[in-house]
Design brief:
This protein has 193 residues and is mainly alpha-helical. It contains eleven helices and two strands, in the order H-H-H-H-H-H-H-H-H-H-H-E-E. It is elongated.
Length: 193
């Protein structure tokens, strides 16, 4: 039953039906509670967290991705643990807890699968934190581009890889270049890069 509800919730989430997905996925988690399936529990909690994130419910996103990290740690597979750590860092970012996000982003090996995304997350945090550091952000973006698992079109561009002095005078509001803005009702969601 847990797997059926999990798959239903994933289908609903993929269709943009996030409220229905949360109901199905939480039911799946209830069915999985009395099992030894830490991998399944981690996958369900991750899916719940992502559905909440897509529905702009950052607090519940954080609650469930923390549970996913716990379950994947119990399972013991580094791939799942790194993925959950990345998503937990992203949830901290969504909740404007930038120091917590950075500490998790730093735990992810830049040469591993989620390393490039972690570097981009750190760069975004450098731009939107209270004391922004655009020079550090650009450096982190360049590190992400150099990452061997990165986007190949950018890896080959010598202008992007140039480590020369950066001129930010052409960008009076550099924050606007890197920080996404999403509107839900009257409230702007800023920092959802």
């Amino acid at each position: 039953k847990a797997k059926c509800m999990y798959y239903l919730g994933c289908i609903q989430s993929n269709a943009g039906e996030y409220d229905a997905a949360c109901v199905s996925l939480i039911q799946a988690l209830r069915y999985a509670e009395n099992t030894d399936g830490s991998l399944l529990k981690g996958m369900i909690c991750t899916a719940i967290s992502m559905a909440y994130s897509n529905n702009f419910d950052e607090e519940d996103e954080l609650v469930y991705i923390k549970q996913a990290v716990y379950w994947f740690t119990q399972y013991g597979d580094n791939h799942y643990i790194d993925n959950a750590r990345y998503l937990l860092a992203l949830a901290y970012h969504h909740n404007r807890l930038y120091d917590e996000a950075d500490s998790l982003y730093k735990m992810i090996n830049p040469e591993q699968r989620f390393g490039q995304k972690a570097l981009v997350g750190r760069a975004a945090n450098e731009i939107i934190k209270d004391n922004p550091n655009p020079i550090r952000a650009v450096s982190l973006f360049k590190d992400a581009i150099r990452n061997p698992l990165g986007v190949s079109a950018y890896e080959k561009d010598p202008d992007i890889r140039d480590d020369g002095d950066e001129d930010f005078t052409a960008f009076p509001d550099i924050k606007a270049l890197f920080v996404g803005e999403r509107i839900q009702g009257d409230e702007a969601k800023i920092g959802r890069a």
